[in-house]
Amino acid sequence: MVRQDRNTSPLLIEHENLDDKIYARLKRMIADGQLAPGQRILQEKLARGMGVSRTPLVNALKRLAQERLVEWVSRRGIYVKQFSLKEMAQLFEVREGLEPIAARLAATRISPAEVRAFKKVFDGFSRKPSVAEVQRYLKCDRHFHWRLVELTENPHLAAAMESVNMMISAYQVGVPRSLAESLPEHQAILEALGHRDPDASEAAMRVHIRRSVERLWQRAHAEEAGTPPLAIALKTRPAVSPLSS
Fold first, then answer.
1. Is 106 in the same domain as 166?
2. Which domain holds residue 72?
3. Which of 65, 157, 208, 231 sits 20 to 30 Å CA-CA off 59?
4. Per residue in 155-197, pLDDT tens?
C-alpha cells in the first residue's frame, strides 16, 4: 500500500489555494483603491465579507506585508501602506534602472504594427487633457511600459517590475509631469523602437524616466520643507478613499 504524504493531502492543497485566492483578491482590492492607502484593515469585517475565516486572511496579509503593501502598526492594527513622495521618487529610481533594459531588449522584438499602434494611441492625446483623459492616458502609459517588459521574455525582469508597478499604480494618481512634456518622450522611445535600435531605445527610455525622477524629488523636497499642498502638483492617493511616467 502506498502511503500518501500528508503534505500533499487534498485538504492542505485546498487550504493553500484558498490562501492564494485571498491574497490575489486583497492585492486587487488595493490596486483598485477598494482598500485605500492609510486605511485600517478590520480583519473580522473583511473575513466576513469574503466568507472566510481569519486564518487564511492573516496568511494573505503577511504575504502582502512582505511586499510592503500593508503594514502592522504596533498597538493600532494593520493598515494599507501609504507611500510618501520621497518613497515614490525612490520607486521611480528603481524604474530608471530597469525600464531602459526592457526597452533595449524589446527593440528587436516589437513588431512594426505594434509600434504604429502605440504611436496612434499617444498621438490621440491632447497636450492639455481633461481629468478623464489623464486617467485614460495613465492606463495607456502603463500598458505601453508593461508591454515592453513582456516583450523581453525575461521572467526575472518582469518579477522585479511587477512589484514596483504594483506599488506605484496602487498608491499614486496623476502624473509627475505634464502630457506636453511626456508625450514627445513617448514618441522618441517609439521612434527608436521602430528603427529596432537597442541603444537609442534604451537611451530614450532612460531620459524619460530620469526626468520624472527629478521632478518627483523636487516634489518630495518641497513636501518635506512644508510647502503648502496646493503648491505640490503631484499628490499621492488620498488616505481612506494608479502613476505614470
1. yes
2. 6-80
3. 157
4. 999 999 988 988 887 666 567 788 999 999 999 999 999 999 9
